[in-house]
Inverse folding.
């Protein structure tokens, strides 16, 4: 067992509860901020194939991409 966790004060908030509350409160704030600034964002769904990402553009387009050092390889438009 992690010693820091074993010695946490009784009644202190569980870190995962704090993280979950923050995500529920702020959710996709950073995503919305990037899209509003005109930048694409990357995400994954449960059924996204291994090694691929979903690239979302501010105009609503979505692509299934493989990220490579040379740049994104578009596998499929969604």
């Amino acid at each position: 067992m992690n010693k820091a966790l074993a010695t946490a004060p009784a009644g202190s908030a569980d870190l995962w509860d704090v993280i979950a509350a923050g995500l529920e409160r702020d959710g996709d704030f950073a995503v919305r901020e990037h899209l509003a600034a005109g930048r694409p964002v990357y995400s994954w769904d449960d059924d996204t194939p291994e090694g691929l990402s979903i690239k979302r553009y501010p105009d609503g387009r979505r692509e299934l991409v493989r990220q490579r050092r040379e740049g994104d390889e578009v596998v499929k438009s969604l």
